[in-house]
DNA sequence: TACTTTCTCGTACATCGTACGGAACAAATG
DNA sequence: CATTTGTTCCGTACGATGTACGAGAAAGTA
């Protein structure tokens, strides 16, 4: 009665799975490998974004007919799942040393670095079978940062979710600017230059006492530096302070 | 030399802008209004998601030819910008009372409620001209929660970014489950039922001492209750504790 | 009535994911 | 060697998508 197991699951774990004689002996030889396809897809998505990744374009890049891709991958959605696990597996995870602050900072920085290098990760919606080996390894590594510090199991998961989610949001804010610059062909500064007058007129009809002051302060600071550590700093400091307060009680 | 101002900007502020005689007197009468179009688009996106929102489908819903939409809106991307501002304007913002904790909790809860009611907000990438009147009002309201508590301007912006980003991430996690259930036609429980065996076999080749324990604990708690307040609770408590520690120093 | 202005929308095109089915190939079998 | 069987390759085709283009329809003005 229960449905068949998800075939993409075996594909995800293809490298850790023992080759239990399932390698076909007869039949035509594949021109490329699943890893070739996924690696090329990652390369294209890194360059042009996830939306611009098309099966036809990928096929040409790999040197194969468009429909041939479907012998390697069940479809575009499943390809994205494989891309996520593959790209997560590339980063090497440094050993967990130092105190809790240092360890969680490391978790956040690795997460930020991944999302900066592969912004399309932010566009990947919730797909079920994210449970690839590399994602699982990453999760285990992240959890090791908070193991034994006094949190219960649920709190450990929530802490990792909180920290990695925040790092992803920092990357998201950065990426939003880059994307609109690319899509509109205008620098952020150019847009403001062109629209300052109209915006001032339009906003003159309402009062924004706080937002006017804070927004311009944030805008200036934002334009000043793009140091990822700095952008992480404030939020992460608050989160870590709060966590220590929770543990020290 | 500077480019023309963004026409969508005037469209965003169409309600606060005085009708400076720009209302056309001659010519054929429009069958519908911009608000009709945007409201219908929101309705469709609420039901089927942002990806499923097509210009043709929207046109049929509004009772208009597909290409007629382009008299009201510059294109699909600009439509989404209008949808965001329109939907943000619907929520009524309660007055800011109570202490800092209560106020920021309110900010987070409103943010979560919006994203739960309109999950497609999570799929809206960074578009430049988010500066609609309702988004501006919302930002002003959010900032009023931390005005005068001892933060400098930059920290005020970062605090709001931190809190609202966290609330959005909670909504994102919820939405990911709903989406995959809809797209795959399988309940989360059904998927695990069908894939438990295969997953166990596949993961038996590696050791996940912490993730195995924590993951199942989180899974059980996750399946138990879906109270949004509970899901907000832990992370928000940490953030607020950390913020108070920062201010009390 | 004729002209001008504005909105309406049918047609067309490029691009997308992918269903389908036969051709091409490699090993096993006779 | 000839045939069968299993596997991969991929050309063609279909339905959707966003939207450029331009002709037609309606409403006010002269």
TrEMBL record, chains A, B:
<keyword id="KW-0805">Transcription regulation</keyword>
<dbReference type="Pfam" id="PF02909">
    <property type="entry name" value="TetR_C_1"/>
</dbReference>
<dbReference type="GO" id="GO:0045892">
    <property type="term" value="P:negative regulation of DNA-templated transcription"/>
</dbReference>
<dbReference type="Pfam" id="PF00440">
    <property type="entry name" value="TetR_N"/>
</dbReference>
<dbReference type="GO" id="GO:0003700">
    <property type="term" value="F:DNA-binding transcription factor activity"/>
</dbReference>
<protein>
    <submittedName>
        <fullName>AcrR family transcriptional regulator</fullName>
    </submittedName>
</protein>
<dbReference type="InterPro" id="IPR004111">
    <property type="entry name" value="Repressor_TetR_C"/>
</dbReference>
<feature type="DNA-binding region" description="H-T-H motif">
    <location>
        <begin position="54"/>
        <end position="73"/>
    </location>
</feature>
<dbReference type="InterPro" id="IPR001647">
    <property type="entry name" value="HTH_TetR"/>
</dbReference>
<feature type="domain" description="HTH tetR-type">
    <location>
        <begin position="31"/>
        <end position="91"/>
    </location>
</feature>
<keyword id="KW-0804">Transcription</keyword>
<keyword id="KW-0238">DNA-binding</keyword>
<dbReference type="InterPro" id="IPR050109">
    <property type="entry name" value="HTH-type_TetR-like_transc_reg"/>
</dbReference>
<dbReference type="InterPro" id="IPR009057">
    <property type="entry name" value="Homeodomain-like_sf"/>
</dbReference>
<dbReference type="GO" id="GO:0000976">
    <property type="term" value="F:transcription cis-regulatory region binding"/>
</dbReference>
<dbReference type="InterPro" id="IPR036271">
    <property type="entry name" value="Tet_transcr_reg_TetR-rel_C_sf"/>
</dbReference>
